[in-house]
Structure to design on (264 residues):
């Protein structure tokens, strides 16, 4: 791996009562790469994402972003630093349009003072219009959703809703993009489209991607580095080829999938 770690997690411990969700998890997401976190249901993957993004506060360990310790920072502050995420279950405002949902992702970057924002005065209006133009040019066109931008999210098929959620995260102009099961519930065509967008985000925009995914074909095809969790612990990591050949990983999770995902 060539990049330096942009996101560094060291010895994270997270418990809920007597249940250990994370037991000393460490990983590094290197700048400009795609790092996948895989493992069985209940392995601690989403708990790890919640600890990294600030929704959970670990009992022990640290999270560092670009060399800065952000373990005690709020989720909002982490987002402002350039850490954006999507969720396992679509978390959009279903009564709002696609465009309005995406604009919400960019609002963390607006700098108008509260008074002008409240009354939608000159600076606030100009910022809002600039944000809209940027979103239309840099996000909506990029993700090929111009044809639905004025539709309410609730009217869209599931695959397009997932794409809108990705668009909202991109509107934050993230340095690290965390994707929680981005292709869950999608058909083959939707999955291939999402894989293409993720690769374009990494390659064309230089965004570091950290993703959780059960689709092993996708993980093995697009990831630079894979981290495997089981019962809240890291049981293996490395390149897709290394992980696929790791006996403990195969025994705990991959099974026959390791052979099914292997290149011909």
């Amino acid at each position: 791996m060539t990049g330096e770690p942009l996101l560094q997690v060291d010895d994270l411990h997270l418990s809920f009562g007597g249940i250990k969700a994370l037991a000393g998890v460490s990983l590094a997401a290197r700048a400009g790469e795609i790092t996948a976190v895989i493992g069985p249901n209940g392995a601690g993957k989403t708990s790890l994402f919640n600890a990294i993004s600030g929704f959970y506060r670990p009992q022990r360990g640290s999270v560092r972003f670009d060399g800065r310790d952000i373990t005690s920072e709020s989720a909002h502050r982490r987002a402002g630093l350039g850490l954006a995420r999507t969720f396992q279950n679509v978390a959009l405002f279903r009564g709002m349009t696609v465009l309005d949902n995406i604009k919400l992702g960019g609002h963390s970057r607006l700098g108008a003072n509260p008074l002008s924002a409240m009354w939608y005065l000159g600076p606030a209006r100009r910022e809002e219009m600039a944000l809209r133009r940027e979103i239309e040019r840099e996000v909506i066109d990029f993700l090929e959703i111009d044809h639905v931008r004025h539709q309410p999210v609730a009217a869209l098929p599931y695959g397009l809703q997932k794409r809108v959620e990705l668009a909202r995260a991109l509107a934050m102009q993230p340095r690290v993009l965390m994707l929680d099961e981005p292709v869950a519930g999608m058909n083959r065509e939707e999955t291939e489209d999402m894989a293409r967008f993720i690769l374009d985000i990494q390659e064309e925009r230089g965004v570091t991607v950290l993703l959780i995914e059960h689709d092993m074909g996708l993980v093995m095809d697009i990831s630079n580095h894979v981290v495997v969790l089981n019962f809240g612990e890291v049981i293996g990591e490395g390149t897709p080829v290394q992980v696929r050949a790791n006996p403990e990983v195969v025994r705990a999770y991959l099974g026959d999938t390791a052979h099914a995902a292997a290149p011909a």
